[in-house]
Amino acid sequence: MSDTMALRAIQQLGQTYRALMAGFETSIGYSVPRWRILLSLYHQGEMSQKLLAQQLRLDPGALTRHIKAIECDGLVARNNDSTDNRLTNVVLTDEGRKSVQHTLPRRAAFFESAFGDLSEAQAEELIIVLRKLEVRMQSESSEPVVDQGQIEVAQSGASQQG
Question: Coil, strand, or helix at residue 76?
Fold first, then answer.
């Protein structure tokens, strides 16, 4: 592939990513990272911030900032772990649980709007191409390359997360 075509592809990927993030936040009412935090807590219940950061592959500092903002909105509560005071646990409040339940239909509508006219084959091809790019980019960065088993776990979680 020529440098020009590679540059065009990378620029398009960046534009698509920014449009996806903006559209998601506009439609759902939450940024993708905050939604993923809420949805993880909704499905898995109370957990430590450390485990949540690992599962969502978020920087612990960024996770803390998101959680503080969500806590100010009354959607989550934090408390010290009863067995390990070094850990802080996070749990959805009743208001947080209701908010997630109320938002799930909007999330489904967003997915349908964004991807509804793609065939299953087109969606699968998109996933394959994006996965190849991800693996290549990970090998160029300090982030370890995710093995196929982790990718499959991430895919099953992505259907619940995003």
Answer: strand
Structure tokens at 32: 């993708």
Q: What is the DSSP letter of 75?
A: S
Q: Which helix (H) or strand (E) holds 140?
A: helix 120-140
The Cα–Cα gap between 147 and 125 comes to 19
CATH architecture classification, 3-115: Orthogonal Bundle (1.10)
H or E element: which one contains 8?
helix 3-28
Mind listing the pLDDT tens digit for each residue in 70-103?
A: 999 999 999 988 888 888 899 999 999 999 999 9
pTM: 0.78
Query: Start-end ranges of CATH 1.10.10.10 in the chain?
Result: 3-115
Instruction: Name the token pair of 110.
Output: 């967003």
Which amino acid would we find at residue 47?
Answer: M
Is residue 51 within 8 Å of 84, Cβ to Cβ? no
